[in-house]
Design a protein that fits this description.
The complex is a heterotrimer.
Chain A lengths: L1 H5 L5 H29 L21 H8 L2 H33 L5 H13 L2 H14 L6 H5 L6 H13 L2 H9 L4 H12 L1 H16 L3 H6 L8 H7 L9 H34 L3
Chain B lengths: L8 H9 L7 H41 L1 E3 L5 E4 L3 H6 L9 H31 L6 H9 L6 H12 L7 H7 L10 H29 L3 H9 L4 H29 L3 H6 L8 H10 L4 H27 L6
Helix pairs in contact in B: 2-13, 4-8, 4-10, 6-8, 8-10, 10-13, 12-13
Chain C lengths: L2 H25 L25 E7 L3 H17 L3 E7 L3 H14 L5 E5 L3 H6 L3 E2 L1 H7 L3 H6 L2 H7 E2 L2 E2 L2 E6 L1 E6 H6 L11 H11 L1 E2 L5 E3 L2 E5 L1 H10 L5 E2 L11 E2 L4 H16 L2 E6 H13 L5 E5 L3 H11 L5 E4 L14 E8 L4 H14 L2 H11 L12 H9 L2 H8 L17 H16 L6 H22 L3
Parallel strand pairs in C: 1-2, 1-3, 11-14
Antiparallel strand pairs in C: 3-17, 4-17, 5-6, 7-17, 8-15, 8-16, 9-10, 12-13
The chains are: A mainly alpha, B mainly alpha, C alpha+beta.
């Protein structure tokens, strides 16, 4: 810890200043969320105030009304959940298999495989977007789960994460198991996977979070409202010709944010360790 | 290696391929071939997806970019490199709107990346102080990573919306002609940048904090013993030791921000001065000019790869590794 | 959490709350009242009867209007059991067109689609359209075509063939705050106004307070190509040649950088520069900001579609603007007695489904065009009926009595005979051209272009480059 090491134990002005800065920073960072909450609780109005005028009559019902006004929200949440789970499962499986081969097998052209995985990280989403969209459209996979899931179930990031982790496990264990006649797949399934739970958890949290929060791709491949995911669905709230309805939109936004916030609180450790693995040492 | 004792179908298949044991050199190559086939089997899922959704589309984009396409995305006429020339204004047409949007993308990156990193490092330093309840503050500072760009975009769109009066004071202060910060050219981009910075603090904070925490205490203790003050410590110890983290944040941050889409779609979708990625979206979604948009997306790719290489080259020299 | 952590957590929360409350009291200087606007509850579809042929119908109207669409569909489905219309909302008119484009590649097209007037050329170019004319003729129902509101019919009748059936029709109006008009001693009941008159109105209606800040602008504006097209129509000027793309040949060149185009932009900018009008931005963002401002009494005049009448009346009542909302014709030069064009959308039948499905689509169109349905639709939305027989129905007449502003709109589209110039233009890049126009206006308002001519010239160049490319792709 940097500042902690140099701090003197009873330096009151120092602590006071730190606390003040912390509180100010926290307020500033949270204020958009508080703003959203404030707008959600003010009832339907085209000219909301910054803070509710009447703290005694806050419209907490808006969170229920959201589901009435837009019953499809539940479907959107369901869609996002299916897609995120599908992608996460796919990434974990495809990455583990690939990383296993990279880390433990000896085969000619290994570096080509490595390069292919690395290359997938180098090609940005934008460069493949249009062709992917045309492919999905022509296959008739718009407004389907496969259109939302398939393009993402392999991940170069996942492969490297798993590979890094596999390489930290003792190779002797594998060699011994092979000598004893254990099948490769058996070893992976019965030994490696249980040992790799931290890495898998990291990959799961990271992939789920990112897939849940996807916007651009679902925007393109879904147009029927019931097929939209949460992120795109809440933006469709605003296209009413009768005028903007701020409160339900903000309520919906807050509701849709909850799963990822909960995931963050629960999976913070995994997420942090996974993200920092490559970053800190350079 | 004898695999035939196992139950795994994969190894059963593998052992079926296994040649008869022999001492000739041929068994060596066959074994290598078998290893390759097994590896292929394991890598197949990811390889197929990469081929279908990363590599094939990439090459198809290059192909499409050389053609004029119809509304259904099919090429109808060969166009050579005309789209590239048009976008980069190398065809003498004098039309610079795409070049301007590339410039806007860079301006945007310059607005966002340094600020978000500086703020996150500042917050990370704050968050290392050992006071009670620091964990809550850390969670708060991390929270924006769980907030999607579309949620953030909707909230900030309302913050900037004149009807909510949240930014009226700023509008008056800056004395701008339209009542909305997003509606005035000079303030639109900084407004989107502010939102992007807010949304990016979570991720940058996590990385910065980990980087700071990775600096061993002994270094600080010896610096304290040597009588170094807080500022000196920061400048000569913390910062250099943080440089690998900084490099990571700068590279990842720039690449990410240059690809920003969601916030532009939600905040300033009709602006004439938007970023290159959004112009690409317009070209293919509203104008249905798939050939032109493909050319633009290849240009984005080239920009990103070049930029990453440059950043790595230039900045890595200044990175101090332990 | 440990006990002292919990205590710390709650005390921090209390501190946060306290600071926020204190800060807010200084920020609160509100004049608008918090009153509810109508909430939107979705309408569930009726169930599908056994053995009925399913007809997929894509539509692009959202919110309350979308609900009425579903209502109409429900009424149709309940009235017979041979066909079942499955209405699928497509988020917006633009998204509908894109979904159709995507559907061309995958073969996933609807049997019936609601497409806005900007999409006509695109729809024709898909090659999968069955012009409704043939159905009318086959069933001996050409009298229904004759009874259609001429302006609405003209929009979708290209080169003598009625391609699609008009469904929801609107036109552009200049909305006014009648109370503000009375206050300023102006006449709100004469709808025919010239540019000069509107400029005078704007000056008279602008209110500044003691410190010189403007508390109400005479006119609120935003960039939207639709009004630009309206002004061309009113002055009988083509948006593009030949003949707005309507006379047998497709449009090959946009010509909207003409005199009336320049005059319109200069008129708007002039008022902004004078300080009697305010610019809110472009397209959807600009339009909702301008509408909110009008409803709040921050502006006294506002350009919008007649379809927004009820919404604006409700918003104005709630937003503190007070008084009645009135409408005037789109402003024009002295002596120009042209009509405005019809906006909204029409229903297109595709040939992708089975013959039964095509018949089902046609059957629904017949239902949608009955006077009863049109009266119901009009009374509940603010679009006017596309068949004139609807005006004979009592509910329509009651509607007109309640909303006399409506009649002004209908009068405006009957001001002149139909010509190619005062009907919506037909071009393959209608939607992109509006973006080019909006961007040019944005730049012009921001001062990046010094003259309106420059702004429109630059937009026209971009439009024509794209139009050429589009025409190339359809092999003309």
């Amino acid at each position: 810890m940097s500042l902690a090491a140099v701090q003197k134990r009873n330096d009151v002005p120092y602590f006071g200043l730190v606390y003040l800065l912390l509180i100010v920073a926290a307020i500033v960072l949270l204020s958009p969320l508080l703003f959203a909450l404030s707008l959600a609780l003010q009832g339907p109005t085209i000219a909301p105030d910054l803070l509710p005028r009447d703290f005694l009559h806050l419209d907490w019902n808006v969170f229920i009304n959201v589901f009435q006004d837009e019953p499809l929200i539940l479907r959107w949440i369901f869609n996002s959940f299916i897609v995120a789970t599908g992608v996460t499962t796919g990434v974990i499986i495809s990455s583990s298999l690939f990383a296993y081969a990279l880390a433990y097998f000896n085969f000619p052209g290994k570096s080509i495989f490595l390069f292919v995985a690395l290359g997938s990280l180098m090609v940005p989403f934008e460069a493949t977007l249009i062709s992917n969209y045309l492919f999905i459209a022509q296959a008739g996979w718009t407004n389907t789960y496969q259109g939302l899931i398939l393009p993402f179930i392999a991940s170069g990031f996942g492969i490297f994460l798993m590979r890094q982790f596999f390489l930290t496990l003792p190779r002797d264990l594998y060699d011994a198991a092979m000598v004893d006649g254990c099948g490769r797949f058996r070893y992976l399934w019965l030994v490696l996977v249980p040992l790799s739970r931290p890495a898998i958890a990291t990959l799961a949290v990271y992939t789920f979070l990112n897939t849940w929060n996807q916007f651009y791709w679902p925007l393109l491949v879904t147009n029927a409202t019931e097929w939209r995911t949460t992120q795109v669905g809440i933006t469709v709230f605003r296209n009413f010709e009768g005028g903007a309805v701020f409160n339900t939109q903000m309520a919906a936004t807050l509701i849709v944010m909850l799963p990822t916030l909960i995931l963050l609180v629960l999976g913070q450790r995994q997420l942090v360790s996974g993200l920092t693995a490559g970053a800190v040492k350079g | 290696m004898r695999d035939d004792v196992s139950l795994s179908p994969l190894s059963e298949a593998a052992s079926a391929v296994k040649p008869m044991a022999s001492t000739s050199a041929r068994s060596g190559t066959s074994r290598r071939t078998r290893e390759l086939l097994i590896a292929l089997l394991y890598c197949a899922p990811a390889l197929i997806i990469f081929a279908l959704f990363t590599y094939f589309p990439f090459f198809r984009a290059i192909f499409l970019s050389l053609n004029v396409t119809n509304s259904a995305g099919q090429p109808v006429a060969f166009n050579g490199v005309n789209y590239y020339l048009r976008v980069l204004n190398l065809d003498g047409s004098g039309r610079v709107e795409y070049l301007e949007s590339i410039l806007t993308s860079f301006k945007f990156a310059l607005m966002v990346v340094p600020l978000v990193i500086i703020i996150s490092i500042g917050l990370a330093l704050l968050a290392t102080v050992r006071v009670r309840g620091i964990r809550i503050f850390r969670v708060i500072f991390t929270s924006s990573i769980a907030i999607s760009l579309s949620s953030a975009g909707l909230i900030w769109a309302l913050i900037y919306n004149p009807s909510t009066k949240a930014t009226t004071w700023l509008v008056h202060l800056l004395n701008i002609p339209t009542p909305s910060l997003l509606g005035t050219t000079s303030t639109a981009l900084p407004a989107v940048a502010a939102m992007t910075i807010w949304a990016g603090i979570g991720f940058n904070f996590i990385i910065a904090l980990a980087g700071i925490q990775a600096i061993p205490n002994e270094i600080y203790e010896s610096a304290a013993i040597d009588g170094a003050g807080r500022w000196k410590t920061f400048r000569h110890i913390t910062l250099p030791l943080l440089s690998p983290t900084l490099l990571f944040l700068i590279v990842i941050g720039t690449v990410g921000v240059l690809q920003a889409f969601t916030q532009f779609h939600l905040l300033i979708p009709d602006s004439p001065n938007t970023v290159f990625v959004y112009e690409t979206y317009r070209a293919f979604w509203y104008d249905n000019r798939y050939g032109l948009a493909s050319a633009m997306s290849i240009i984005i790719f080239i920009i990103l790869v070049t930029l990453t290489l440059i950043q790595y080259r230039v900045l890595e020299r200044r990175v101090h590794y332990q | 959490m440990k006990k002292h952590n919990l205590f710390l957590f709650s005390s921090i929360l209390v501190v946060l709350l306290a600071i926020v409350l204190v800060a807010s009291s200084s920020v609160m200087a509100q004049t608008a009242t918090n009153t509810p606007a109508p909430t939107i509850t979705p309408v569930p579809p009726v169930p599908r009867p056994e053995g009925s042929t399913e007809v997929t119908f894509w539509y692009g109207l959202g919110g309350n209007l979308g609900n009425v669409v579903q209502e109409v569909v429900n009424r149709y489905n309940s009235s017979q059991s041979t066909y079942y219309v499955n209405a699928v909302f497509q988020s917006s008119y633009e998204d509908t067109i894109n979904a159709i484009n995507a559907g061309l590649a995958s073969g996933d097209l609807p049997d019936l689609a609601q497409v806005f007037e900007a999409g006509s050329q695109r729809m024709i170019d898909t090659g999968h359209i069955l012009p409704v004319q043939q159905f009318f003729e086959r069933d001996g129902m050409t009298d229904v075509i004759e009874d259609m509101e001429p302006a609405a019919r003209a929009n979708y009748e290209i080169n003598g063939t009625l391609y699609s059936a008009p469904f929801n029709s609107s036109t552009a109006m200049l909305y006014i705050n009648r109370a503000a008009f009375a206050e300023a001693g102006l006449n709100p009941d004469e709808p025919m106004v010239t540019f000069d008159q509107v400029a005078d109105f704007a000056r008279a209606l602008t209110v500044t307070d003691a410190s010189g800040n403007v508390t109400r602008y005479g006119l609120g504006i935003y960039a939207d190509g639709w009004f630009f097209e309206q002004e061309h129509a009113v002055h009988d000027a083509y948006m593009g040649i030949p003949n707005n793309g309507r006379a047998g040949e497709r449009m090959t060149e946009y010509t909207y950088n003409d005199a009336i185009g320049v005059q319109w932009l200069e008129f708007l900018k002039g008022l902004v520069d004078e300080g009697v009008a305010v610019y809110y931005g472009s397209a959807a963002g600009g339009s909702s900001a301008a509408a909110a401002a009008f409803a709040n009494g921050e502006t006294a005049m506002h350009f919008a579609s007649i379809a927004s009448l009820r919404g604006l009346i409700a918003a104005a009542a709630n937003g503190g603007a007070g008084g009645e909302v009135g409408v005037l014709y789109m402003p024009r030069n002295e002596g120009a007695t042209g009509k405005t064009i019809v906006g909204g959308a029409s229903l297109w039948i595709t040939d992708v489904g089975s013959t039964e499905q095509q018949e089902g689509a046609w059957d629904f169109i017949k239902f949608a065009l009955t006077p009863e349905t049109q009266a119901f639709w009009s009374v509940n939305t603010g679009y006017y009926p596309v068949v004139r027989a609807a005006y004979d129905l009592p509910e329509m007449q009651a509607g007109l009595e309640q909303y006399p502003q409506f009649q002004v709109a209908v009068d405006q589209i009957r001001l002149a005979d139909i010509t190619d110039a005062n009907t919506a233009h037909v071009s393959g890049i209608f939607v992109p051209y509006r973006t080019h126009y909006n961007e040019a206006v944005e730049r012009y308002m921001a001062g990046e272009f010094s003259t309106a001519q420059e702004a429109l010239d630059s937009a026209v160049a971009i439009s024509n480059e794209q139009l050429e490319e589009y025409n190339l792709t359809v092999g003309s």
